[in-house]
Amino acid sequence: MKISSIHYYYYFATLAIPLIVPSDAQLSSTFYDSTCPDALSTIRTSIRQAVTNEQRMAASLIRLHFHDCFVQGCDASILLNETTGERTALQNANSVRGFEVVEAAKQAVEAICPGVVSCADILAVAARDATVAVGGPSWTVKLGRRDSLDAANRALTENDIPMEREPLDDLISMFENKNLTIRDMVALSGSRTIGQARCVTFRDRIYNNEIIDPDFAITRQRNCPETGGDDNLAPLDEMTPNVFDNSYFRNLQNRRGLLESDQVLFSGGSTDSIVQEYINSPDRFNSDFAAAMIKMGDIEPLTGVDGEIRKTCASNN
Ligand code: HEM
Ligand SMILES: *[C@@H]1O[C@H](CO)[C@@H](O)[C@H](O)[C@H]1NC(C)=O
Ligand SMILES: *[C@@H]1O[C@H](CO)[C@@H](O)[C@H](O)[C@H]1NC(C)=O
Asked: Is 67 a catalytic residue?
């Protein structure tokens, strides 16, 4: 077929329009409605199955999304299986998990619409579906994030993700750096109403901290000796370790928070009143948590033509 140059002009001009998406484009919940209408239901099936297989996976997926978003934005950088950067940071090494679950969801989506749905979006949806699977609130996930070409380096990662012994003021400013409020921080920490922590992260607290219920300290010391046993696990919420409820906050009131960064949220500082509010109102906790997860998912996404849509989450194309 012969096409005149003027036709060429209009042909390419028309084609080009959808490509001119500004790099600060807004995320949108309908992003895949026409390009992959079954993406969300496919991810949900995959995540529900994974949480049925292992309930802790719900916690691990929420945390994986958090660690992705706090370093270089929600760009799936943490999923890259490189051996020197982001994943080797103190906060991640031998700690973050759920990679194979996200990869399985990704491959299920690739099977129905290859090259369309980013790993960063799959991780954001997985965190929501995981929350719902253990009885937590639901929310509408904004979509349209793209995947990074590279992981962040170790130094940036260690700088941006809070550690378990961070003082309250530092925790507050680390969240402020990501445009999250004190309230967002307390609500998001409430997801540690599920999941587990390694002895190495709470040893100092159960042997040396003063703001702790003595019986609780003794119980936890049984499986976390003063030396050795670094990887021994304990539930972050001893009451209902696999249910997304507000007992995390009730534990804090009873000085039975496992990590120092848990108990610090209720030890006479500016966050005590928020903890009290979430004890009084589980609904308020749920709605604040959902709103904070949406805000966290908005941290510096790659959009438009930035980054790429990876074929496998563990490596760039
Ligand atoms: C406030 C600053 C935070 C600090 C200092 C912190 C620290 C930690 C530490 C040390 C662990 C145990 C890791 C291990 O032993 O391997 C942990 C687990 C966990 N954290 Fe946080 N975290 C923080 C914020 C958050 C936020 C914002 C979320 C969710 C959006 C979150 C969700 C979780 C979950 C669900 C687990 C359990 C993970 C599992 O069982 O695999 N944390 N956190
Ligand atoms: C926080 O908000 C400011 C102003 O909108 C923006 O320039 C900045 O990139 C945001 N930072 C993050 C980490 O989202
Ligand atoms: C990283 O993932 C890719 C793709 O799945 C795989 O081929 C490679 O062996 C993995 N590398 C490491 C270090 O695990």
From this structure: yes
